[in-house]
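To whoever is on call:

I kicked off a structure prediction for a single chain this morning and the downstream step that reads the tokens threw a length-mismatch warning. I double-checked the sequence; it's 451 residues and nothing unusual in it as far as I can see. Pasting both halves so you can look.
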Amino acid sequence: MPESGVLPFPVTDIADDEVVLRCSEHAAIADLGAVLQLCAAGRLRCSEKTRRPSAATVAAVERVLSAGEFYAGEAMASFAWPLLLQTGGLAELAGAKMVLTDRGHKALGKPAAETIRHLWRRWIAAGLIDEFSRIDNIKGQRKARALTAVKPRRGEVARALAQCCPAGEWVSIEGLFAAMRRGGYDPEVSRGTNVWKLYLDDPEHGSLGYDGHHGWAVLQGRYTLAVLFEYACTLGLFDAGYTDPDHTRVGDLPDYLEYYFQGPLSRYDGLLAVRLTPLGSYALGLTATYQPGPAPAGHSGGIELKVLNNLDVVVAGKLMPATTMLLDAFAERSADRVWTLTTVKALAAIDTGRQLGELATFLHRAEHQLPQTVTQFLTDLAGRTSRLSDHGLIRLIECADPALAVMIARDRRTSKYCWPVGDRHLAVPVEHDTDFRKAVQTLGYALPPNK
């Protein structure tokens, strides 16, 4: 869990016990597995129109976060994870329900660092939302041309983070902003007279268009905080030092607006400092390989797993949400920390789209060689799931006599669209229905309209 701590530089008007230091690297790796398991279990839903997570989904994700949310009752990591999975191609919507793609299923058995690097790069290239839209207190964003294109400024932030944050060193947000401005990194949010469309509370008196009301920290800075806090820290690229947003404002508003608008400008205003993690160096392309940093106190770097000869799976130590959800999917829970592998439960999981390799990879993490009974169990399952094939939906065509069925099945114009079933029937894949009908007509026959 996040703990109070001391940053290596003074923080004005904030007591040390009001600062939270969150080591995010190992938490993010655990959270990735948990959110993938939630998706595999069919428990995540998003708006079909905006693809943003529902309130129930945000709550479900928050419950499995290994370190909880940054702020109680404020959706940040739990809001970001469903969007990250969709952007990265690990999940897609089937109606409003999120389902894992083939890539998502494979990610369950791959090193988490590779997947997190992929998610960050995909987010920078094609994130689903404009992060600035999450700064709710700045109004007028939906007006035509009020904001600049999001992809260039998102890229500016990513490049700035890679260049302005030395690995393993705490960097204050004020120091980061200063380094960005010195280096020419400018994630410009609004340009020219369009900034007049943005305002706080009142379009006239609270407009950001007045001179001095749209300073770098107000727009570029707040946008940088949104990308950094909600996405880079969620993915474990940066450790975060933060406090209650009411206690601080990075780049304070001009005096007039500060008088006019009371309270923090955004949910991200409490971020005080960040520290680039080894996972962040890897994801940002600063290192070619990933070497994990030391796990924080109280964090288990792995699970204590025993797989017994009687097909029981026993988990000791800290029981992570991802582990619980995986075993609940493939095995019957027989005690608080014991699951029993059964063919019925495993086949049911596979029938919903889960992959046997996911279970096998997990079991091989046991502290000893798998018993012969378990390896045989996995071998038998592999055989049971490979002896049947799904060739998709077909249309069953009945012929008047066997001779006609043989002729159509063997003719070069129709044979590529069908195959015989018994003496008088032909199977036609639904995607070839139109082609089959046209080919049959060249033989002098016609099918009745589809029912």
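Update from on-call: the warning came from a stale cache, not from the record. Cleared it. Sanity check on the structure: The chain has a mean pLDDT of 90.
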